[in-house]
Structure formats: structure tokens, C-alpha cells
């Protein structure tokens, strides 16, 4: 849509175009001795695919007035160079986007030659074309004011495309350095190579004189950027879609494409023949087909990354097909295609960047989910054994260093196995969940509550002495036996046995838990439904009376 908005609208045909299959000396052409050898060409564009210079003739169909400062415009010349003889010229006007023939008065949209005298009907302009890029150059005559307007639009569009690719490449390399994800490295290489390729063949490199001189004389540099970009793109696709695991056949096909690209790179070093550009376009098309097929297959399997690849490569595949057909002489694409292809590259890079960022977010969400599963028990919402043990280690170290009190409470559900055997494991799980909810709600926000194993729960009470911890434990016991549990239309009572221990100076975590566990077993051995505290010299037990389950009253006894 953006390309259509900024594209130059097709105008009425201004010239009759003819081509001479040969390269006679200019004097023969200008004298008219080879006039009969020119063959008419349909349309209003110069499309030369051979590497040898060729002559073209543009014959005015109607008079062109000099009043509006008309200029001959050869749009989208890429790396081609031309020599233009206007009526009456004895020396040609040489034009090219880069090199010594570059005219910095105009943008890289076109090669522009002024026609100060205008043209009469039937007058001819002769053009000798040195082809470095086998793409059509659209021919027209535009007033100077229109040339400047179109140049401004062209500069804005190319700035948008190259700026987008450059910014995305910088973001990719930043993410690569920041998080070390290899996919971003391949994305950076892809985007950077695409930007350099577009700047090379589109003429923007003329802003860097030494690079402009190199590329203006040798099209292999820009072609090499294009081949490297496709290689990097293939590597990114293989890693992003995980083709080794999901699509091994397509991965082998991509390896074949990469081998062909490497061969073309080597051939490009030794030759600048235009046929290599055609072959490179064919391999790029094959890569696009393989990539699109892998993306479509992944999308059918609901692979999230594949959706972004389909969105990115669908327009690129269509544009590549249209481009290849034109290079092979099958058809002539509309002029707006010259904008659509670079825009497609920029938008494809943007979609891939968004897709890769989404992929990283998904990996982070999966990691956070896995971390939560490792930290919190799914059934009760309590900390897992490893999580609460790790936090207890840190709290004990802090308490020992700061000489602050710390206590722990071990408890489990009395006759829990009997509940499982009599009512089933589903009721047992619900019992454990309800008991965990009732007891956890009686704790302070900074107390720790963890499922230590089975129905055994560990509670860590920072900044709490034994006497206070016993009160907390008694509160936990009362929270459970204060009223019966109702599960699946069954009503039954549940009670807890609890053991409490306070951290001693210099004591290890293992010894602290051993004392709390001993106090828990003391509660079980003395009748259950009670709290036992482990002091330095004795176990002190708080036990429920027979009516405790309903009246919540209790008595205290001491075990020596």
C-alpha cells in the first residue's frame, strides 16, 4: 500500500523505443548509417540483459516544448551507466548513479539529462547503455519541477526503507550482545546485508566516495552483499523455526540452497557476468519457496513462530516471483515494483524482529512457568520442599549473623492415610488443600509456608521465639479442628499434630529441622491433635481435651 501511494503514475508513451543489436562507433549512429538496423521495442523502457554496450533510440512522438525545462529521465537505473546524445550533440552526456558520471543534483531515483531545446516530433535521442544490472530503466520526460518533486518522494521512501533496516539491525545486534541469543546475530547479519545490498544497487553508497568508486566500477560488491544476506537469512530461518527437529527434509533443501549460494559467491569473486545475477535471483527464489513451505507447515502445526514467518515471507515470495519473471523476459512489471521490493524487505525485517521478540517473550514465559512450578506446589499453593529449604537456609544464616530469633513448625494431618483409604485420593487431595488454606491464612505475610512432603508442612517464623511460635502453632491447630471439613457431600473432622523448635546460636539448619521433626513425632505419640515444643532440655506439649474438636479447649502436659 505504501509503495502504491508513492509510486510514479504511468504516463502516456512519449517515445518510440528501438534497440540496435551491436555497438558501432558513435559517428555511424549519429550519421544515420545504421538507422535501418534499429528494431522497435514495445513499451517505454530500456531493458538490457547483456554485459556488452548496446545502442538505443528514443524518437519523440509529439513535440516537447522547452518552456518547462524538460528533462530526459531514466528511472531506476541501478548500476547501469549511459551515454546520451541529444539532437545536435557532438559529445555525449554521461550519467550513472555512482562513479565519476554521477550527478549529485538529482536523487538516485533516475539518471536525468536536461533537454534545453526540447524535441520536435520525430527527433531522436541516442543512448549507449553499459549494463551492470539487468533491470529495466523506465524512460520519460519530466519538467524540472516534477523531477524535484519525484526526487523528494524517492528520497523519503529510500530513507524510510534503509533507516528501518538499519535501526532493526542495530536493535538485533544490541539484543544479541545483551542476552546472547544466537538468532539475533543471524537476524542482524540478514538486515545489515540487505541494507548494504539496497544501498549498493540503489546508488545511496555514493555518499561514501571510496565505496562508490569501488561499486560503480564493479557490480560484484553489491551482489555479494545480496548473497550474504540470503545466507544469513537461511541460517536465521533454520534456527528460528528449529528445522532440524521439525522439518528435516526442508532443512536438507535449505542446505542445498546454501551450497548453491556459496558457489555463487565464489563465482562472483572471479566474474561480474550478468548471468550470475540471474542465477542469484533464481537461488533466492528457491530459498524463498523453501522458507515459505517450512513456515506454512509450521503454521499448520500451530507453531507460533511460523505465523510470523508466513506474514514476513508471503509478500517476499510474490515479489521474488514477479522479479524473476521480469529478469527472464517473461513480462514487464509495473514501475511501482521498484519500490515494493525494498519496502517488502524492510517490512519483512520488521515482522521477523517482532516475531523473534515474541519468541523470546514466550521462552521467558515458559521459563517463569517452569520456575513457578519448581517453587510452588500445584495442589496447595505452598512453597515446594526445595524452595522453602533454600529460603530457610538464607533466613538461618541471616538470623545467626544478626543474633535474631527464628522458629520453625512441622505439622501433618492426623490419620491422613485413613482419609485416603476410606474416601479416596481425590478427597485426600481436597483435604490437604483446605487444611493448607486454613493454616496459611493464620500466618503473617513474611512467614514461610511450604509443603515438605506428602501431608507434612513446614512453617518458618522469622523473628519469633519459641514461646510465640507455640502460640502460632496452637492457632494453626485451632484453625483446622474448629469445624468439620465438607468435601463431596461428606462431613468429617481433621486434626493436626505439630512440632515447634527455635533456632539455637550456631545451630545448623539440619539440626533445627531434626528437633522440630522430633517434636512432631512426640505430638503423635502422645495422642495427636496437639502442639509440642522442643526446648534445649525437654519437649513441652499442648494437647487437646476430648471435647477440643468442638469446643476448642485444651490442656497442657510436659514430656521429659
UniProtKB/TrEMBL annotation:
GO molecular function: diguanylate cyclase activity
TM annotation in the entry: 155-177, 184-201, 221-241, 253-273, 279-299, 306-324, 336-357
Catalytic activity: 2 GTP = 3',3'-c-di-GMP + 2 diphosphate
PROSITE patterns with a match to the protein in the record: GGDEF
InterPro entries xrefs: 7TMR_DISM_rcpt_extracell_dom1 (IPR011623), Diguanylate_Cyclase (IPR050469), GGDEF_dom (IPR000160), Nucleotide_cyclase (IPR029787), Rev_trsase/Diguanyl_cyclase (IPR043128)
GGDEF domain span: 404-536
Broad class of enzyme this protein falls into: transferase
SMART domains linked to this entry: GGDEF (SM00267)
Keywords: Membrane, Nucleotidyltransferase, Transferase, Transmembrane, Transmembrane helix
Its EC number(s): 2.7.7.65
Keyword Membrane included in the entry's annotation: yes
The protein's name: diguanylate cyclase
Amino acid at each position: 500500500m505504501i509503495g502504491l501511494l508513492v509510486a510514479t503514475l504511468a504516463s502516456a508513451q512519449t517515445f518510440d523505443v528501438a534497440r540496435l543489436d551491436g555497438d558501432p562507433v558513435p559517428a555511424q549512429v549519429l550519421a544515420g548509417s545504421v538507422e535501418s538496423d534499429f528494431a522497435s521495442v514495445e513499451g517505454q523502457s530500456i531493458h538490457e540483459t547483456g554485459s556488452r554496450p548496446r545502442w538505443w533510440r528514443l524518437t519523440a512522438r509529439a513535440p516537447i516544448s522547452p518552456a518547462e525545462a524538460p528533462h530526459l529521465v531514466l528511472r531506476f537505473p541501478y548500476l547501469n551507466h549511459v551515454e546520451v546524445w541529444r539532437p545536435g550533440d557532438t559529445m555525449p552526456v554521461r550519467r550513472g548513479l555512482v562513479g565519476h558520471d554521477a550527478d549529485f543534483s538529482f536523487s538516485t531515483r533516475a539518471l536525468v539529462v536536461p533537454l534545453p531545446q526540447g524535441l520536435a516530433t520525430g527527433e531522436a535521442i541516442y543512448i549507449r547503455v553499459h549494463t551492470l544490472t539487468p533491470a529495466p530503466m523506465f524512460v520519460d520526460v519530466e519538467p524540472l519541477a516534477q523531477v524535484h518533486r519525484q526526487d523528494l518522494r524517492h528520497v523519503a521512501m529510500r530513507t524510510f526503507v534503509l533507516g528501518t533496516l538499519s535501526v532493526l539491525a542495530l536493535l538485533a545486534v544490541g539484543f544479541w550482545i545483551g542476552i546472547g541469543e544466537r538468532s539475533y546475530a543471524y537476524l542482524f547479519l540478514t538486515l545489515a546485508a540487505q541494507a548494504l545490498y539496497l544501498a549498493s544497487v540503489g546508488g545511496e553508497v555514493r555518499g561514501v566516495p571510496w565505496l562508490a568508486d569501488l561499486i560503480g566500477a564493479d557490480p560484484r560488491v553489491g551482489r555479494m552483499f545480496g548473497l550474504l544476506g540470503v545466507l544469513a537469512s537461511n541460517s536465521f530461518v533454520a534456527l528460528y523455526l528449529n528445522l532440524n527437529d521439525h522439518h528435516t527434509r526442508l532443512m536438507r533443501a535449505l542446505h542445498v540452497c546454501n551450497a548453491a549460494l556459496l558457489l555463487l559467491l565464489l563465482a562472483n569473486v572471479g566474474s561480474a557476468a550478468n548471468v550470475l545475477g540471474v542465477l542469484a535471483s533464481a537461488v533466492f527464489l528457491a530459498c524463498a519457496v523453501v522458507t515459505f513451505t517450512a513456515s506454512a507447515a509450521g503454521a499448520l502445526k500451530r507453531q507460533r513462530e511460523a505465523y510470523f514467518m508466513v506474514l514476513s515471507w508471503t509478500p517476499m515470495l510474490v515479489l521474488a516471483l514477479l522479479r524473476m519473471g521480469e529478469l527472464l523476459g517473461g513480462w514487464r512489471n509495473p514501475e511501482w515494483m521498484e519500490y515494493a521490493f525494498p519496502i517488502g524487505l524492510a517490512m519483512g525485517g520488521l515482522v521477523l524482529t517482532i516475531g523473534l521478540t515474541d519468541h523470546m517473550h514466550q521462552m521467558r514465559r515458559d521459563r517463569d512457568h517452569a520456575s513457578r512450578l519448581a517453587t510452588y506446589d500445584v495442589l496447595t499453593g505452598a512453597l515446594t520442599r526445595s524452595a522453602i529449604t533454600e529460603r530457610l537456609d538464607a533466613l538461618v544464616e541471616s538470623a545467626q549473623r544478626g543474633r535474631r530469633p527464628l522458629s520453625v513448625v512441622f505439622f501433618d494431618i492426623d490419620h491422613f492415610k485413613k482419609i485416603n483409604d476410606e474416601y479416596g485420593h481425590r478427597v485426600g487431595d481436597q483435604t490437604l488443600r483446605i487444611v493448607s488454606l486454613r493454616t496459611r491464612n493464620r500466618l503473617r505475610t513474611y512467614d514461610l509456608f511450604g509443603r515438605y512432603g506428602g501431608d507434612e508442612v513446614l512453617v518458618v517464623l522469622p523473628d519469633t521465639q519459641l514461646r510465640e511460635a507455640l502460640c502460632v502453632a496452637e492457632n494453626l491447630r485451632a484453625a483446622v479442628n474448629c469445624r468439620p471439613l465438607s468435601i463431596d457431600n461428606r462431613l468429617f473432622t481433621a486434626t493436626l499434630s505439630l512440632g515447634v523448635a527455635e533456632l539455637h546460636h550456631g545451630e545448623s539448619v539440619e539440626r533445627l529441622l531434626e528437633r522440630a521433626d522430633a517434636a512432631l513425632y512426640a505430638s503423635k505419640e502422645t495422642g495427636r491433635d496437639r502442639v509440642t515444643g522442643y526446648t534445649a532440655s525437654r519437649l513441652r506439649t499442648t494437647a487437646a481435651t476430648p471435647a477440643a474438636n468442638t469446643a476448642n479447649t485444651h490442656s497442657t502436659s510436659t514430656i521429659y
